[in-house]
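Lab notebook, design round three. We kept the backbone fixed and only want residue identities now. Task for the bench partner: fill in a sequence for the structure below.
Input structure tokens:
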């Protein structure tokens, strides 16, 4: 079968399954199965797809029709300026989370600073590693409660050349951090989806680790813990940058001052930036 026919039929099947971008997803899967670039795929539009490639593509297609996230099928996801390995052990990195990176860069604009940065709930490591690459003199501590997530983050750090400036620690929120260490910047994209919201999420999210999505309550539980404990781990004037969503953000504790809320391109609330007050 010709490549253009394979793509047309696959796109029709994906559309019927309710996939948002059926043609694009079909193209990515065929590129992966065939081992070709986007340009090559255009050139090969009227070529016959080899039988072994068709078999591999159809296996991927079946998974996507079942609404498994494309990133898990491909094994990689683009985030910020790089590509990250992902598996079902970690959340799929999302474009909205890139706004968190932008907030750190806005408030700590000197890229040559020797910052001490902590990422709480690092998952794939996409935030921690992106910041390590943006600040070449920074030391970054990446923490997660999941050892499987940390294993993926370590792979990504190695692939992107920042392992020597990173430390990976397992633990729940601040419990992972050394008690005698304070940071210039703490970032976190914690589970902030409320239990009620979980019923209305897209089918793909059922494949992602639930514990990384929701606190099984209001969506504010872990955000509040991060806010309440931040002063113990931030230097005076240090930044805390948190991502959130529909649940909003808990009240700011007396130990911090809120510098700003930030929003995505559609105008939706995405999180807040805080600063530790001077002692």
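Proposed sequence:
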């Amino acid at each position: 079968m010709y490549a253009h026919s394979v793509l047309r039929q696959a796109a029709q099947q994906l559309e019927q399954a309710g996939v948002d971008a059926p043609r694009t997803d079909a193209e990515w899967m065929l590129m992966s199965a065939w081992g070709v670039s986007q340009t090559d795929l255009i050139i090969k539009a009227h070529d016959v797809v080899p039988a072994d490639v068709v078999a591999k593509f159809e296996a991927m297609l079946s998974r996507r029709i079942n609404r498994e996230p494309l990133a898990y099928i491909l094994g990689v996801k683009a985030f910020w300026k790089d590509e990250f390995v992902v598996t079902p052990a970690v959340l799929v990195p999302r474009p909205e989370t890139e706004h968190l990176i932008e907030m750190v860069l806005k408030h700590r604009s000197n890229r040559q600073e020797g910052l001490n940065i902590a990422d709480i709930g690092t998952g794939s490591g996409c935030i921690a590693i992106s910041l390590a690459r943006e600040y070449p003199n920074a030391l970054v501590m990446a923490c997660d409660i999941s050892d499987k997530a940390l294993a993926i983050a370590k792979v990504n750090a190695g692939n992107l050349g920042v392992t020597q400036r990173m430390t990976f620690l397992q633990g729940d929120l601040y419990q992972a951090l050394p008690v005698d260490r304070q940071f210039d910047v703490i970032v976190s994209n914690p589970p902030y989806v409320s239990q009620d919201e979980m019923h209305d999420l897209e089918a793909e999210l059922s494949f992602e680790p639930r514990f990384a999505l929701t606190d099984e309550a209001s969506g504010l539980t872990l955000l509040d813990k991060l806010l309440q404990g931040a002063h113990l781990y931030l230097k005076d004037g240090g930044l805390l940058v948190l991502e959130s969503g529909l649940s909003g953000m808990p009240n700011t504790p007396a130990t911090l001052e809120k510098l700003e809320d930030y929003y995505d391109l559609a105008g939706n609330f995405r999180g807040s930036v805080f600063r530790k007050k001077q002692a």
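Keep this in mind before ordering anything: The two ends are 70 Å apart (CA to CA).
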